[in-house]
Amino acid sequence: xxxxxxxxxxxxxxxxxxxxxxxxxxxxxxxxxxxxxxxxxxxxxxxxxxxxxxxxxxxxxxxxxxxxxxxxxxxxxxxxxxxxxxxxxxxxxxxxxxxxxxxxxxxxxxxxxxxxxxxxxxxxxx
Length: 126
Hints:
By secondary structure, this protein is an all-alpha fold. Helix content is about 85%, strand content about 0%.
C-alpha cells in the first residue's frame, strides 16, 4: 500500500475513531500501554472536576448515568462482535474471552444502575 494511501486511511481512522487490527502481541501491548497512559493522564483532570462538582448525592447521578449509557452501548456492540465470532466459528478461547467481557460489562451496567438508584433513594431520604 502506498504511503499516501496509508496516510489517508490513518487520517480517516483517526477522524472517525476507527481502529486497525494489530497482528503481533507486541503491537497490541504497545497500543494497550498507550491507551492506559492516555486514560491516566486524563484521569487527573476528571478527578479534579468530579471533586469540585460532586458535592451531594444528586450531583453524582448525571455522571454515573452518562457512564452507564456509554458502557451499555459498548457492551451491546460487543455482543454483536461475540455473535459474529460464534457464527464464523472463531476459536473457542476467543469466544470465551468475549463472553467474559460481555458478562462483566452487563454486571457493570447493573452496578451503575444500582448506584443511580442509590443517589435517588438517599436524596429522597434526606
